[in-house]
Design brief:
This protein is an alpha/beta fold. Helix content is about 35%, strand content about 15%. The chain has 9 helices and 9 strands.
Length: about 240
């Protein structure tokens, strides 16, 4: 299931097949290998067949030349407005640098709750010793931002994937796993089986040669729920 070749589909082709499915939508040019990986991570993490759709062109309206970046909020609205008809959720992937409000940059943004998230691959290779580390960062952001669409807020547990990643140290310090509370919340909304979900994610990580980088079985084991159950401030 996770190793089939990516077949890019037009908007018309996915209009009805997309019903009830996750869709990965590139904004601008994105490496096919990144799209295939994103599809695999989404399928394993959220238990839904996932389609890779035709890219949306970059729009000057969302570009801030004085910063050399695109607005994350604009990209999110753009992806929402152009989501394939009937899609269960949409994860937009861009290779462009994005920002929001007073933040210098963002790794991604998800509507909470909603049906769309945006992830930027632009910075995943920064301060990074290996290609494997870049891909694990990518996987974490996909799960984090898509998790927001199911109503999951930022978590205070420092190892939980729903912890706000304010920088590389925080991002690299989280697991590719939700804490017990966040995982229960996700499973309650989606009817996913937590053990099956972890098994599917393990399969994907092994297929992509990332099992060691993610920390093996321990890397997917849910950390305990935080003692303070108050969500962190609402950020992307």
């Amino acid at each position: 299931m996770h190793t089939r070749r990516v077949r890019t589909q037009s908007t018309e082709e996915v209009a009805f097949p997309a019903v009830g499915k996750f869709c990965v939508v590139p904004i601008g040019e994105v490496a096919e290998s990144d799209l295939a990986f994103a599809r695999d991570v989404v399928e394993a993490s959220f238990g839904r067949e996932t389609l890779v759709c035709e890219p949306l062109p970059l729009q000057d309206a969302y570009y801030y030349p004085e910063r050399g970046q695109y607005g994350a909020n604009g990209f999110l609205r753009y992806a929402e407005a152009n989501a394939p008809r009937g899609a269960y959720r949409t994860v937009a992937i861009t290779a462009q640098d994005i920002f929001a409000a007073d933040l210098n940059f963002l790794f991604g943004m998800g509507r909470c709750p909603g049906k769309c998230a945006v992830v930027s691959t632009y910075r995943f290779g920064f301060y990074c010793a290996t290609p494997e580390r870049r891909m694990v960062r990518f996987a974490k952001l996909i799960v984090h931002e898509a998790g927001h669409t199911f109503g999951l807020l930022h978590c205070r547990q420092r190892l939980c994937i729903m912890k706000f990643a304010e920088g590389y140290e925080t991002l690299d310090g989280t697991k590719l796993a939700m804490c017990g509370r966040c995982e229960r919340s996700l499973c309650a909304v989606t009817a996913l089986d937590a053990d099956e979900r972890r098994k599917d994610l393990e399969e994907v990580l092994k297929e992509h040669g990332l099992w060691e980088e993610v920390g093996g079985a321990e890397g997917l084991a849910p950390p305990p729920a935080p003692a303070d159950l108050t969500p962190e401030k609402s950020l992307p």
